[in-house]
Amino acid sequence: MTAAAEARVGPPLWLLAELTYRCPLQCPYCSNPLDYASQQQELSTEQWLDVLRQGRAMGAAQLGFSGGEPLVRQDLPELIAGARDLGYYTNLITSGIGLTEAKVQAFAEAGLDHIQVSFQASDPELNNAVAGSRKAFEQKLAMARAVKAAGYPMVLNFVIHRHNIHQMNDILALCENLDADYVELATCQYYGWAFKNREGLMPSKAQLVQAEHEVNCYRDDLRSRDRAMKVIFVTPDYYEERPKACMNGWGNLFLTVAPDGTALPCHSARLLPIDFPNVQTKSLNDIWYHSPGFNHYRGDSWMPEPCRSCDEKDKDFGGCRCQAYLLTGNADNADPVCSKSPHNDRILAARTAADHATAGLDDLIYRNARNSKLLYRG
Ligand code: FES
Description:
Helices cover 39% and strands 12% of the residues. By secondary structure, the protein is α/β, with parallel strands linked by helices. A nine-stranded mixed β-sheet has the order 7-6-5-4-3-2-1-8-9, with helices on one face. The longest helix has 20 residues, at 205-224. It starts with a helix and ends with a helix.
C-alpha cells in the first residue's frame, strides 16, 4: 500500500485480544470457530504484551479481552497491568465463571476499566441448561454483585434467542434487582456455533415483535420511576431490510487477534478462504496496512453489483463478508440480508423456517471439545 493509501486507511482504534478458546461453558451460540478444539496454541504473555505495545503505537485506544473465557489465562492481571501502562481503555468480556471477589479486586488494582458479565437467561434452570453448567447462574449472580461492589458500572449482557426471548420482563427485573447500569439484550447473530444451530435459535418475527414491545414498555416504566438503567436491544439483522455496516467496514477500525496470533478484521473471518497473517511472523503495522487479507475488502473496487452502483454502499459497505460467505459460499457477494441482494431468498427462507421451528434445547449442538472434534472430522 502506498503512503497516500495508508494515510486514508487510518489506524486500528479497537483491538480485540481473544486470549484463548478455552471456556468452561458450552453455549450453542458461541462465535468461536467450530474447529476451535483443534486450535490449541496460545500466544505467551510476552507475545501478547508485544501485540498490545504494537497496537498502541499504531494508535489503538480501546482494548477488549475476550475468548473463550479470558479468565482461564492465569496471566490476565499481568496483561491488564501492561495494557494500563500503555494507556489503553480496557474491557473484560467474561461469563463470570472462574471469577472471584479477590480477582475482581486484583483486576481493579491492575487498572482494568470495565467488566461485562454475560448471562444466558433470567432463571437458573434455563441459564444453566444453555450454558451447559449446573452452577453457572449462582456464580454469575455473585460475580455481578462483586463487580458492582468493586466500583465498576454493572454491565450485563444477555444473548437472546427463541428459548429465552419470552423472558424480557424477567430478565430486566433481574437486572434491576442486581442494580445494573447497562443491559445489552443482544439477539443472536448467526456465526460460528450460532450459524450451525440457527434453526434451533432464531426467533420468529412474532416473538421478536413481542419482545421489542415488552422492552419498550419496560423502558417507559424505568423512566417513570426515574431509574437510570440503560437498556439496549440489538435486533437480529436477519429481520432487517438493509445489512449492518459490519465492523464499521473491513479493516477500518477493528483488529482481532485470535489465541494463536492470527490477525483478523473481525472475530469470524477465520472461516473465510483468505490467508490471514500471524503476529508471530509479521508486525501489526505490516499486517494492518500491507497484508492481502486486511486489504481484501477495503474500499469498493471489490464490490459486485448490486452493491457497486448502490447509493447506500458508503453506509453499509455491502454488509457483512462472513455472512455473505456463510449464506452464499462467496464472500464477495452482497450480504443476503439486503433486500436488493440476489441471494435475499436465503434470509426469507430462514425467517419462514423460524416461524415453523420446533427444535428444543436438546436438539442444539453445544459448543464443547467433543462436538468440535466431531464436526471438524465430519
Ligand atoms: Fe466478519 Fe462481518 S463478521 S465481516
